[in-house]
Specification:
single chain; mainly alpha; 29 helices; elongated
């Protein structure tokens, strides 16, 4: 509510503003700019957070205009001259709608627009809006101005509405023209191959977009040829337009929904998003061609003005662009990782022990990788050379773990987080269970995920340590050379969270684990969209070389393992090149991974001939646990946040989820570490 003090202050500022301008300009000779309007709006624009206000009161302006005929005449003449026949069709057709299928171009354009806004010609309404309402929050506080006050303002200064014949229906003509342009653009875009292939269901049906365009032309002609430049809600053309609009919206939704079958490219996603935005814009504009009764003419004029301001203020909104543009693709990516993640969640004791043995296999290979890295570090090479050697060591090792069916514990969180989000989404759509039951079910699933991760960590660590110790001992006995003797101190201190940036380096590894999951999902989505498996299967040269059956098996093998192999390859590259990139940039960058930390602890102990201070050993053992936790929490948190966002699940639900998990932990603490019957 407006206080008396605030009202008095605003009144004084309004009077001073009118005095300043009327002293130098008459009602017939107003200034040819928008400076007056800018200053007037600034008087009412909230200086604090507008959310604190129940409403924005413009009664001081109404009182000043009612009490002074000179000010009233001046303001009326000024607004008429400023707003007379200012084109706004481009606000309808362009502003806030993505203009290209190139996502990076759209991001760059909006970033530049924030710093150096595009300024249209002065004969357009967009130029005025750019000058007067130049803040993204303006539509929100403007909506708090009571409509009855704005209607009273229009009445005081004699401004008409968009449906009055005295204005020659300029605004209605702009709406019709803008809507027609939108329809032409929609019809052209929807015929592109990238869009058409997403909706094979419509291949042999009449396009609702063509019918929509024809129906709108008939409606436009009816309005143009009528004395009253509006129609009523019972108009047959309007009713048919609404039906066709719904069919077009269903077409776009079907295309998005089909992405799980056919995949989706960024270009196709942007094209579909553009069409959806244009359909939404068209639907809004159609509403302003409808007038239920002439009593609502003023109100709808105000709503149109507010809508145009909202569109214009959101023209450089980057967060919404990223959210809309990436949702479908991120959903497909996380769907792939969710399906993969289901294999990493154990239920029975048999699965639990099998996870331990597969993790043991992963620990075995990592122990060899630890030794190989020590040996590669002794090779004379450039910084790039060492980055290449380390990357290939990691990549080939991770691929071997993957192809052998072994488990690297920290690869799980990125996958299982998506599986958890998918389960939460399924619970959300299941109307037969209550919210409490949904969260309880989720807590049980989380306990299964946690104990699966726990036993995988145990398998990796418990095998990597003794095998690495055995390998370095064997090399020493055979070749009489302790490969870690010169590096043992760094191997051990780099594990300590207090003597080194081990936590930061573990977080970097967790981030790379998250990215590797994204790579796997994006490759699977890309291959699905581009029909890579089918193209391999029917490749004529391959069929001549390998035969039809072997080519088919190759295609199926790539479909099953291709994304995982490439994901593990790039994960190895990230892990192996981080340190070299850090040296090049002069930054302390490196990675710490729990399984490698376990192997390095063994190498460090042997390299130091086991003659080490107890504190270094204790901090090293403690550091392994900390590194594992940070690996898990960073990878899991990033993956879960992406999965939740891609499924439109509110982050506010995390509070209820956490409470349910804590409750389940208090009831069945052992279920988080071992499969107990009572917790199932």
């Amino acid at each position: 509510m407006r206080s008396r003090t605030t009202g008095n202050n605003q009144t004084e500022r309004i009077i001073h503003l009118f005095q300043t301008y009327t002293a130098t300009h008459s009602a017939e000779n107003e200034p040819d700019d928008v400076a007056f309007l800018v200053q007037l709006v600034n008087i009412f624009r909230p200086k604090k957070d507008f959310q604190l206000f129940n409403r924005i009161d413009i009664s001081p302006l109404l009182e000043v205009l009612l009490s002074n005929e000179g000010y009233r005449n001046y303001f009326s003449s000024y607004l008429r001259k400023t707003l007379y026949k200012k084109e706004f069709d481009t606000i309808i057709t362009d502003v806030g709608i993505i203009k290209d299928s190139d996502f990076s171009y759209e991001i760059k354009k909006r970033l530049v627009g924030k710093i150096l806004p595009i300024q249209p010609q002065k004969n357009t309404l967009q130029f005025i809006l750019n000058q007067v309402f130049d803040r993204s929050s303006d539509p929100q506080w403007l909506k708090k101005v009571p409509i009855y006050q704005i209607e009273e303002l229009m009445k005081i200064i004699g401004l008409g509405n968009i449906y009055q014949s005295s204005k020659k229906h300029f605004e209605i003509a702009e709406i019709l023209y803008g809507s027609e342009v939108l329809l032409h653009r929609i019809s052209g875009k929807v015929m592109e191959t990238e869009v058409n292939r997403m909706v094979p269901e419509y291949q042999n049906l009449d396009s609702p977009f063509i019918a929509l365009q024809r129906e709108f032309i008939e409606l436009s002609e009816q309005i143009s040829n009528s004395d009253k430049k509006y129609i009523t809600p019972d108009n047959l053309h309007y009713k048919q337009l609404l039906i066709l609009l719904k069919q077009c919206e269903n077409y776009i939704e079907t295309a998005f929904n089909n992405s799980h079958k056919f995949g989706i490219s960024l270009k196709a996603n942007q094209s579909l998003l553009r069409i959806r935005q244009q359909l939404e814009r068209l639907k809004v504009m159609l509403d302003f061609l409808i007038l239920e009764s002439e009593d609502r003419a003023g109100e709808k004029t105000i709503l149109l003005s507010w809508q145009l301001i909202q569109y214009n203020c959101g023209r450089t909104n980057i967060s919404k662009l990223i959210r809309d543009s990436t949702q479908s693709i991120s959903y497909e990516i996380t769907q792939h990782t969710a399906k993969t993640g289901e294999h990493y969640i154990t239920s029975s004791r048999k699965e639990y022990y099998r996870m331990f043995w597969t993790a043991s296999g992963g620990g075995l290979i990592v122990a060899f990788l630890c030794v190989f890295k020590i040996l590669l570090g002794k090779v004379e090479a450039s910084g790039f050379g060492h980055a290449f050697y380390y990357s290939m060591n990691y990549s080939l090792g991770f691929i071997a773990i993957y192809l052998c069916g072994f488990t690297l514990a920290t690869k799980q969180p990125a996958m299982t987080a998506s599986a958890l989000a998918s389960a939460l989404e399924n619970g959300k759509h299941n109307k037969n269970i209550s919210a409490e039951d949904k969260y309880t079910t989720f807590a049980r699933l989380f306990a299964r995920v946690f104990r699966s991760q726990f036993i995988a960590f145990a398998g990796n660590v418990m095998i990597a340590f003794p095998v690495a110790m055995l390998l370095i001992w064997g090399i020493d006995k055979i070749f009489h050379y302790n490969i870690a003797e010169q590096k043992f101190y760094f191997l051990l201190t780099d594990l300590s969270p207090v003597h080194s940036p081990a936590i930061f380096h573990a977080a970097i590894a967790g981030f790379f684990l998250f990215i590797s999951g994204i790579i796997a999902g994006s490759i699977a989505n890309r291959d699905k969209f581009n029909h890579i498996y089918y193209r391999i299967q029917e490749h004529p040269a391959l069929k001549r070389l390998l035969g039809k059956n072997r080519t088919y098996k190759l295609a199926k093998a790539y479909e099953k393992k291709g994304a995982g192999i490439l994901s593990n390859f790039w994960f190895g590259v990230f892990m192996g090149s981080t340190s070299s990139i850090g040296i090049f940039l002069g930054l302390n960058l490196d990675i710490r991974h729990i399984t490698f930390a376990s192997g390095n602890l063994a190498l460090g102990l042997y390299g130091g001939h086991f003659d080490l201070p107890a504190s270094i050993i204790v901090w090293g053992i403690f550091g392994i646990g900390v590194i594992g936790f940070v690996n898990f929490i960073v990878s899991f948190s990033l993956s879960l946040s992406l999965a939740l966002r891609s499924r439109n699940i509110s982050f506010l639900e995390l509070k209820s989820i956490a409470a349910s998990i804590w409750k389940h932990f208090k009831q069945y603490p052992m279920s988080f570490f071992y499969p107990t019957r009572s917790s199932q």
